[in-house]
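Pair request: fold both.
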Amino acid sequence: MTNQVDTGQAYREIDRWDRGVGWIGRPDEKMQRASHALVGDEGGVWVIDPVDARGLDDLLAELGDVVGVVLGLDRHKRDAARVATRHDVPVYIPEWMSGVATELDAPVERFGGTLGESGYEAFTIRDASFPPWQEVGLYHREDGTLVVPEAVGTVSFFCAPGERLGVHPMLRPVPPRDALSGFAPDRILVGHGAGVTTDAAAALRDALDGARRNLPGAYGKALKELLS
């Protein structure tokens, strides 16, 4: 590995369990962009939507060898190419995701219903032209880990008062119930904020059921924070 980033800014660790870890690469950002490293069934490490940070390679080395970097949302190019290049691995994107591969300065591999030999099932959360949005979810049934890059999150502007997990503000009028309601995970890893590791299935159910009902409170809270 070469060219380890030195931003002068260290990550904040989140979501650690025996088969992975998460981090927020820029802890001072309001968006709280979260990234994750998942240990696959084959022992390799899959890095999801990474934001690079000082000391990141040491964190990844604790888990094993990186075998791939995964793009979970078409807008989450972030530092995927840089991390992939440094570890000499491809960036993996869903076979149906368009308009992304040519924008990545790294080799690209496509994946379908499973993410390599990781044990994670891949499923489409959203593939829409309006608003433009291509998002893939990952789920490991034995481990109980659900990865949702964007449709739900825990950062403040996602959540109405009283919510532990909230639907993305743009999706609250049409929450992704069809894509997400069939899961009962032990933990939910999200692309904005720390994950949900306690009563995760209930938090997901409440987020989907209350997306429209809690919309006024969520929008009012977000507007107040924006103006503060």
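--- second member of the pair ---
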Amino acid sequence: MKPFIGVTCSMEVDRSYYMTKNDNIKAIINAGGIPVILPFLSQNTDIEQIAKRIDGLYATGGYDIDPTLFGEEPHQKLGTIIPERDFFEIELTKKMLSMDKPILGICRGSQIINLAAGGDMYQDIYAQINDHVLQHTQNSPRDHGSHFVNVRKTSLLHQITNKKKIKVNSFHHQANRSVPKEFQISGVANDGVIEAIESKHHSFVLGVQWHPESMTDEVSMNIYKNFISACNCL
């Protein structure tokens, strides 16, 4: 039996649902999972039922996250936010963490994992980090690796990639800032921006700031294969 993977989708300000990239669906299918696109529910009992029924959660990229959720006022550079999505994804992630079910977060999804666990984030890395910041919104094809990420040796990400340095694509202006003690930073760009986080206590909880679904290299494929493998172990 293939595992059922709950996939978060996107929503426009007019409340219409959409999937940002079909690459997300194909990545799950190609790795051996069955993707199930999730609507944004508001009742905790409904969200708990979803958490119980899916074998893994795949939190995709998308719009910005409401900064009031981590105690900040909106920065001038804050982009579009969708409150329904923020609430649903954070609550579902909390329930998945409590059940120790596998989670893979991509870009925004990595930030959702961090916030659900008690961390915080930069609303805009270019305005809020004083040091020189790399180009994190690349002007090149989506499948092109535009900068490097240094991988922590004692990490799940290192086990998956078997590399000290990987090349990734980049399409973000927000990023994780403070990571809770139950998590570790497993990947960092050369400018110090956090590129990957993971749980130190759960079976498989990994968030990456880049978009491996849009790449075809071995590292990207292994991220999905290991995620689906963890979902199969339930």
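Observation on the second member. Helices lie at 22-31, 44-53, 83-98, 108-116, 125-128, 156-161, 218-232.
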